[in-house]
Amino acid sequence: MRQTTILRLALAVGLPASVPACQTERQNIPDLTAEAATKLPPDKLPRIFRDPTNPYGYPYNIHETDGLSRNPDDCAKWGCVDVGGGGF
Q1: Residue 71: Cβ-neighbour burial (10 angstroms; 0-12, 13-18, 19+)
Q2: Res. 11 pLDDT band, cuts 50 70 90
Q3: Which of 4, 44, 65, 68 counts the most CB atoms within 10 A of its CB?
Q4: Contact indicator for 63, 37 with CB cutoff of 8 Å
Q5: What is the phi-psi region of residue 19: left when phi exceeds 0, alpha when psi lies from -120 to 50, beta otherwise?
């Protein structure tokens, strides 16, 4: 009985706390074409932007320039953290 009460309390506190971290769909992401982004100096390039001219959905219309993108094209343009030799 005591364990189930503690588990319920932990879930009641933990689940609502994780919801704000999952609100990425409602972020304000600036619109900028990929062509215009390549012409910007590195200090003016936003960390994340949406390309309104790209007809494909996520992840191809969202560009992340910090090396953490799920878009394979961004890895070629701005680099990715996990691209490497694959050895340990």
Answers
A1: buried
A2: low
A3: 65
A4: yes
A5: alpha
